[in-house]
Amino acid sequence: MRVLLIEGNEGDVALIRQGCTTSPRPVDLQVMQDGAEALDFLFRRGTYTQVLTPDLILLDLQLPQRTGFEILQELEQDPDLKFLPVVVVTGSNNKADVNRCYELGANAYVVKPSDPGQYIAVVQAIIEFWHGCQFRELSTR
Questions:
Q1: What does the longest C-alpha to C-alpha distance in the chain come to?
Q2: DSSP letter at 111?
Q3: If 0-12 CB within 10 Å is exposed, 13-18 middle and 19+ buried, where does residue 106 land?
Q4: What architecture is the 2-131 domain classified under in CATH?
Q5: Cross-strand partners of 6
Q6: pLDDT (tens digit, 9 = 90+) per residue, 98-112?
Q7: Residue 72: how many CB atoms within 10 A of its CB?
Q8: Extents of the domains making up the chain
Q9: Which tens digits make up the pLDDT trace of 35-86?
Q10: Cβ atoms within 10 A of the Cβ of 14, count?
């Protein structure tokens, strides 16, 4: 399973990486720490022309360059990427943020747990759930 993590916080990246590496399912994790670079990766621009489309995106809302909302909006407008599963994993429990993410096509919204052990367990549960889902075949561009 190919997972693209778009997260600007090193501590959160480490916890999510640990959740992926200790998952019973094999995970190929790619990490982008800035929203503009993540969009280049997803749209295969610049140095990312040969990358494979991820099976799942884990997305924070607070990012350098472009916000998580902007990334969701860009994905929603692309006919090939709009069906890509996106789980927002963020520190905000603001109802307006939750609603906006769902309006922009997010598949799930998870508030980051403050306890590291719970955080890792949540990541493992996300991976397990999405690994069991049938992924829609995305066209190759």
A1: 41
A2: E
A3: buried
A4: 3-Layer(aba) Sandwich (3.40)
A5: 32, 59
A6: 999 999 999 999 999
A7: 23
A8: 2-131
A9: 999 999 999 999 999 999 999 999 999 999 999 999 999 999 999 899 999 9
A10: 12
